[in-house]
Input
Amino acid sequence: MIQNDVPESVKTLLKQNFGLLINGTISASASGETFQSFCPSDDSLLANVPAASSQDVDAAVASAQAAFKGWAETPLVERQKMLLEISRMMISASDDLGALDALDTGSLFSTMQYDAAWGGSVIEYMCGSANEVKGEVTQFDRNLHYTKRVPFGVAAKLLPFNRPIQSLVAGFAAPLLMGNCLILKASPYTPLSALAFGRMIKDILPPGVVSVLTGTNDQVSTPIITHPGITRLALTGSVAAGRAVSALAAQNLKSVSMELGGKNPLVIFPDADPELAADIAIAGMNFAAQSQSCSSTSRILVHKDLKAEFLDVLVKKVSKLKLGFAMDSSANVGAMTDTALLERVLGYIDAGQREGAQLLIGGTRPDDTDFARGNFVTPAVFCDVKPNMTIAREEIFGPVISVMDWDNYDDMIAVANDTKFGLTAVIVTNDLHLAHTAADDLQAGYVEVNSPVSYAHGSPYGGVKQSGNGRDGSIEELLSYTQIKSINVNFKRTVK
Output
């Protein structure tokens, strides 16, 4: 392993036997089979992890069903206490969990450590919001008509490969606070932090309340999606994954929420400061995670009056970005998580050039021999991109920026909205009227003004169109893990 600066505590974690969490116990898979997890920075072996199967899914569901009644009847204040303990644990363990994610994903430690600590704060926020989930009393007549919010039972969350611990923890609190039991399924590409998290929490929660599984999609995800004992399902992934999950979940009419892909616009108005706009463009691309983020603002629509100056500043800033291994504190850009993803990104760069876009910088494999074994590609900036080009329409999920120019507001909005996606959008302007007008006109579930996407606590996060459904990080997420139950009390003593 090239990573010479891995903390000793993380080396210790990597030496442990990674096991599934089922019924409060850390164990091997039922079959005893394992698979290997490699570091994308240098292709070194990190660990062997359990390859679960439908037998393990059945065991996790059975333990959750057995635990459900007791968990649902546990007073909310007690559930909050346990989750707040996990929140504190997350924050104190954020260095170790962040390092595991950095090594497992190829992303830089700085952003992965932030993810873990931020996840702890999400749990804390959700605990504070849970008291606001309430039923209602209606007054149709002199009888009593009221509603209660009740849990589904057993919920499951399918985690993405790109931000493992962030996605795990961000979707962790809501189902549990609302009285559901939860099965977490990690990506086979990046399973380590989920398994470490399972070991950390196993003695905080009652057995069966949370299970953590790892393995292939065929052997684990599909049995989870189709299992009749799981009634609520959440997914973070691609549009293709969303379609596949929807089709399988429909067999049992599960309640499904999905946060899917994005091809997100960054709209720059002529009054914007080009330095600020370029800083927002770079921060919004999440280069520390190789732009493997659904919220990355990879389509830049800059006004023609500002185009030349903005591009000059942007290219200069991109030229100073440094590639680095996961634990390199001086680096700005990490490695792609998987070789197939790297080849996919390089294919898009080739397509951009073939279709006539001008590649201003990057888009190549680095010359440095230290990076030869890793999945590295230099950040690319294209200009003169046309709306019908492949790089302007498809989610690349890699460090590729497509810059288009505009001079007519209505035409710009039409181009910005001409996509199957609708996750995020960012606006840069000093004009409040333009900011609010554009925020209304852009077809996105989450809009930010004069900043990269911030994921502010309490701001519902989610997409429209094929970017998914449901909203996370707010009371809307808590509500989504409940069902409304109507109760009518008739005070009359006779029945007609």
User: Anything to note?
Assistant: The two ends are 79 Å apart (CA to CA). The chain has a mean pLDDT of 96. The CA atoms of residues 43 and 373 lie 6 Å apart.
